[in-house]
Structures are given as C-alpha cells and as structure tokens.
Design brief:
- About 70% of the residues lie in helices and about 5% in strands.
- It has 8 helices and 2 strands.
- The protein has a two-stranded antiparallel sheet with strand order 1-2.
- The longest helix is centred in the N-terminal third of the chain and has 28 residues.
C-alpha cells in the first residue's frame, strides 16, 4: 500500500501545483460560461489561453529550473524557506504582468481579472509570512482556487454545470461540483502531509492566506 501511496501523493502534488491555479480557473470559466469572453474566433480564444499558460505556468517553471541550475535554490521542491524567495519574486512579477494586461481588457471577465489580483495579494502575503513560517504553497493556491470557483458559480447564476463527454452531455449540480473540488483539495493537501512536506499548521496557514487574498481582491471590486 505504501508503495502506491507515495507515487500517488507525488502525482497529486503535481496536478495540484499552485502555478496551475490561474490556468485551472480560466479553463473552468470557459467551461461554465464561454460567452463571458466575447472573442470573435477560436483563434483569439486560443491566443488568450496560450498567453495565460506561458506567462503563469511555463515561464515561471523555466525560471525556477534556471535558478536550480545556477545554484540559487537547492531543490525544485523548495524544502527550505530561503529557496522560496526567488521563485515567489519571479512568479509575482509575471502575475503582475498578466494582471496589467487583462484588467482593462473588455474581453476578459472582471471576476477573472479579480482572481489574478487576489493571487497577487496571496503571493505578497506568502512572501511576508515565509520569513517566519514555511506555509504550504499548495494550500495557498487551492484556498484561492476554492474562492474563485465559488465566486464564479455565484456570478454565473443557475444551479447546473453542463459537462460534455464525447457525444454525451451531463448536467452536474453546483453542489456536486463543489464536493468534487473539496475532495480534490483534501486529497492534494493530504498528499503534502503524507510526503512530510508540511505539518498541519503549514496547511491551515497556507489555506487561510489563499482564501484571504481572494477575499481582499473581490472586496476591492
């Protein structure tokens, strides 16, 4: 059983990585209500997705790998608090760039731009708290993701999400969607504890920071 749990925990840590949260919420927006993005062609929509993917995921990952290569950090898992300083700064810079480019773009829903702003607030709080405690970055990202999804469901109205699989479409009640999301969050954070990457207070602290960053951002709007 232990031989299965460890690779499963690494897999959950990978798909629940905090760098993926901005991209995940974008895909969720497109699934729930693609008409929130008034693009005239699929080409323009694809360009937006690729821009968010490269700026929020790929470029920060490449930057972190370069830091590892030159010895600025000891491990991509960033076991030490000092290893997080550079990656947090680089990620923050690129997220600022994303926000500045989408906040006045009429083709980007304001709630999504607000989520990116909330992510920036969470990053700033994480950078500060990291001086004293090694809170879980996974928990920060997932806490923010939960608020972003809740806000989208409330903003979109209705009670069901249409999920297409092949030629068949299923209507999922929002309660089911939230239950699945809660299960995913619980599984990822449990994996972080199983891998002994964090203790309970790191998980709780990170989750609070992620939620608080989003609440501050949505409050500003």
């Amino acid at each position: 059983m232990a031989a299965l749990l460890r690779p499963l925990s690494y897999f959950l840590s990978l798909i629940g990585h905090p760098l993926l949260m901005v991209m995940y919420l974008l895909m969720f927006y497109l699934k729930v209500n693609p008409y929130l993005f008034p693009y005239s062609s699929n080409r323009e929509m694809t360009a937006l997705v690729l821009m968010i993917l490269f700026t929020s995921v790929i470029i920060p990952i490449v930057s972190i790998l370069l830091m590892l290569g030159v010895g600025f950090i000891d491990s991509v898992q960033m076991h030490k608090r000092t290893d997080r300083v550079g990656p947090l700064m680089v990620t923050g810079i690129f997220y600022i760039w994303i926000y500045l480019n989408i906040r006045t773009n009429s083709a980007i829903p304001i709630p999504y731009a607000t989520f990116v702003l909330g992510t920036l607030f969470s990053l700033a709080m994480t950078f500060f708290v990291n001086n004293f405690s090694k809170i879980s970055l996974h928990a920060v990202g997932l806490g923010g993701m939960l608020v972003g999804v809740l806000h989208l469901l409330l903003y979109n109205g209705g009670n069901y999400l249409s999920l297409g699989l092949g030629n068949t479409s299923y209507n999922l009640h929002y309660v089911v969607v939230l239950m699945v999301l809660a299960g995913f969050i619980g599984a990822v954070l449990s994996a972080r504890l199983y891998l002994q990457a964090h203790v309970n207070k790191d998980i709780y602290g990170g989750f609070v920071v992620g939620v608080l960053g989003q609440l501050v951002a949505y409050g500003l709007f």
